[in-house]
Amino acid sequence: MDPDDGVERPTLASVAALAQVSKQTVSNVLNAPHLVSGATLDRVRAVIDEVGYRPLRAAQQMRSHRSQLIGIRIDPVREGLGGIVLDQFLHALTRSAEESGHRMVLFTADGAEGEVAAYDELVAGFAVDAFVLTGTSHGDPRTAWLRRRRLPVASFGRPWDDPTGRSWVDTDGAAGTRAATEHLVAQGHTRIAFLGWPVGSGTGDDRRSGWLGAMASAGLPVAGLDAGLPDDPAVAQAAALGLLAARGVTALVCASDSLALGALGAVQELGRRPGADVGVVGFDDSPVAAAIGLSSVAQPVAAAAAACIDLLRAQLDPGPGDDVDEPVLLAPRLVVRASSERGGPQAVVPPVLPAP
Amino acid sequence: MDPDDGVERPTLASVAALAQVSKQTVSNVLNAPHLVSGATLDRVRAVIDEVGYRPLRAAQQMRSHRSQLIGIRIDPVREGLGGIVLDQFLHALTRSAEESGHRMVLFTADGAEGEVAAYDELVAGFAVDAFVLTGTSHGDPRTAWLRRRRLPVASFGRPWDDPTGRSWVDTDGAAGTRAATEHLVAQGHTRIAFLGWPVGSGTGDDRRSGWLGAMASAGLPVAGLDAGLPDDPAVAQAAALGLLAARGVTALVCASDSLALGALGAVQELGRRPGADVGVVGFDDSPVAAAIGLSSVAQPVAAAAAACIDLLRAQLDPGPGDDVDEPVLLAPRLVVRASSERGGPQAVVPPVLPAP
């Protein structure tokens, strides 16, 4: 390739000249091929292919005021387990967007204010039609800005500060930890602890509530069995060690696979067998869970992506029966592996986290 | 939000009318704010913000024939460990693209032919300026198509069928497995096996060659120590079991973390200690490796992304000193953890892969 060769980009007119047809015929080949005879169609298409003519969408954009682009923020780097669900979501979203004729365009931003500035630039510079939001939290300034601009928006994750909020899709985290707890109760455990995040995060409190509800339904005590921790395996290992050694705990429901990794480390540190002696269940079903035999709660990522695109599509082109902003709460799925099965074919052996 | 309220999208003219200025002044506020007085600037910007005016890039696009969009394919779903490096690359690419004023736009496609069809549609429908390719393989039809269309392209991964190919960025896989092998030799191992993929994949053969070279340099034998396998932990576990039990192997260099997981399973199955008794090194430094204490070769993902964007930028706007398509081969980094250190602070304990 020599981009410096000074050749002009081909135009509709140059294609028409080379194919010896009118510009209208070239336009018909592109936009209404049924109006063009087979031989002409072949000839014009051959020229278009030969010269690499790009029939710029720009003119169409100016008429429709639609770019067919949907924006979504991603982190500038991806490390650890935390972002795996969002990466899976992005893959599914790309497919779902395509099925409705849209493409996902990516951007990075620091914080919610930076994200709003990025929206502004994407709308001004790229005419982005709509946005998918992730990582919603208490007091989120993003949706207000988008609504003021009348931009279609769908959130993966609830607006925790606004119970009347609309146009979101989320996983029913409480249902996931409830299923995990009920599974451990069915395995004969009665001292079941919860390794979660500190109280105050919407997602974390949701996951805690499912454990609390299932324990109450089973008539089991929870006092002293609830740990609020940073999402760090080493911290979780120390906390789990205390719960297992001093509080008679035999099973742990965890708000993430990172916390569950720490729990497995503590089980091993005490010389107990995961699965057979101590049940451990994580959350998000990361590739790590599948690799080491850790039971985990899987989010319905593909369904969430399809639901987000459906919300945007309804807002962009509302039909008679469309709920343009009806929230969607999806059920997760408990994936049982060796780490929580007492009679399983083979016990999982946990990783040891080397001393930092 | 009520998208059905029939309000027309604001135009340059309606902003001008509301701000009581000329259309040229609005244009100046957007494109040449230094020409506009402070009070007018504030008033026009307030109206733009209030009504949500989008100064469509379309008109600029038609003049420049540039969309500032760069296309990249992603898989419609993401499972297991295989795609983690590409996801990390995508995050870094988004950041590098932004630094040059571009945005990444995503698409999915089935196979190389499907990818070419997607290029066609992205160029015609979205005026995408350039593409980043991944997953290059022998006999790739994609670069030929893109070159014929004079579209700037950069590949993450070498065009293995064409040693004279240009405009690619890749990790020096051989250097990675060479470093892993030398590290194991330094730990006192002499029977070091290679768990790789079947001969014929460019990336796999590259990684194999680094092990072969380091073994030759150390004067160590390789006969019977080279396994070509599918990228599946269970298959790798069976192969590693044979190498450890019957061939006196005490260390394994693996072409992926998936294969290394299988190797760790075999070490445990034989009651040996990873690190202390048997050294294991994976490739790609996935989050699984960090989580379970597996040594692994890390690809320089951020540098690769920056190099790809730099190649595209040079092709789009070649400057006097630009190498528009000079290949870039980047050195990986060996991350040593407990799985390959005989005297480490704590030995890794591998996962057991439950029977399928």
From TrEMBL, chains A, B:
<protein>
    <submittedName>
        <fullName>Transcriptional regulator, LacI family</fullName>
    </submittedName>
</protein>
<dbReference type="InterPro" id="IPR000843">
    <property type="entry name" value="HTH_LacI"/>
</dbReference>
<keyword id="KW-0238">DNA-binding</keyword>
<feature type="domain" description="HTH lacI-type">
    <location>
        <begin position="10"/>
        <end position="64"/>
    </location>
</feature>
<dbReference type="Pfam" id="PF13377">
    <property type="entry name" value="Peripla_BP_3"/>
</dbReference>
<keyword id="KW-0805">Transcription regulation</keyword>
<keyword id="KW-0804">Transcription</keyword>
<dbReference type="GO" id="GO:0000976">
    <property type="term" value="F:transcription cis-regulatory region binding"/>
</dbReference>
<dbReference type="InterPro" id="IPR010982">
    <property type="entry name" value="Lambda_DNA-bd_dom_sf"/>
</dbReference>
<dbReference type="InterPro" id="IPR046335">
    <property type="entry name" value="LacI/GalR-like_sensor"/>
</dbReference>
<dbReference type="Pfam" id="PF00356">
    <property type="entry name" value="LacI"/>
</dbReference>
<dbReference type="GO" id="GO:0003700">
    <property type="term" value="F:DNA-binding transcription factor activity"/>
</dbReference>
<dbReference type="InterPro" id="IPR028082">
    <property type="entry name" value="Peripla_BP_I"/>
</dbReference>
